[in-house]
Amino acid sequence: MVHWGELGLILVHLGEFWVILVHWVELGFIMVHLGELGVTLVHWGELGVKMVSLGELGVIMVHWRELGVIMVHCSELGVIMVHRDEL
């Protein structure tokens, strides 16, 4: 395990999986990446943004709370779906 205190970066290797965890307290930013699975999760608290990327499947989901927007993109299917609560 590697930890850089100033950057809030933690790198953990769990057997088969490389897990990268970034927690930036001042910005309310959390990022988790599971290397072998190609999964990335980002939560940016101040902006109310959540993003999930499933790398191998080509799926990206973004939720932006303040705008009420949810966007899903699936590259293999060529599908983009956008939903806005306020419309």
Residue stretches low in confidence (pLDDT < 50, at least 5 long) are none
Helix content: under 10%
Secondary-structure element order, N to C: EEEEEEEEE
Tell me, what's the shape?
flat
Distance between the termini: 46 Å
Class from helix and strand fractions: mainly beta
Radius of gyration: 15 Å
Number of strands: 9
The averaged pLDDT comes out at 77
Total DSSP helices? 0
| Percent of residues in β-strands | over 45%
Strand order of the largest sheet: 1-2-3-4-5-6-7-8-9
The largest sheet, given as strand count, sense and whether it forms a barrel, is:
9 strands, antiparallel
Annotation keywords:
87 residues; mainly beta; nine-stranded antiparallel beta sheet; 61% strand
Secondary structure: elements and pairs:
Blueprint: E1 2-4, E2 9-14, E3 17-24, E4 29-34, E5 39-44, E6 49-54, E7 59-64, E8 69-74, E9 79-84
Brief synopsis:
The chain is mainly β and 87 residues long. Helix content is 0%, strand content 61%. The chain has strands spanning 2-4, 9-14, 17-24, 29-34, 39-44, 49-54, 59-64, 69-74, 79-84.
Describe the overall structure:
There is one protein chain. By secondary structure, this protein is an all-beta fold. The chain has a domain at 26-84. Helices cover 0% and strands 61% of the residues. The chain is built from no helices and nine strands. It has strands spanning 2-4, 9-14, 17-24, 29-34, 39-44, 49-54, 59-64, 69-74, 79-84. It has a nine-stranded antiparallel sheet with strand order 1-2-3-4-5-6-7-8-9, with no helix packed on it. β3 and β4 form a beta hairpin. The protein starts with a strand and ends with a strand.
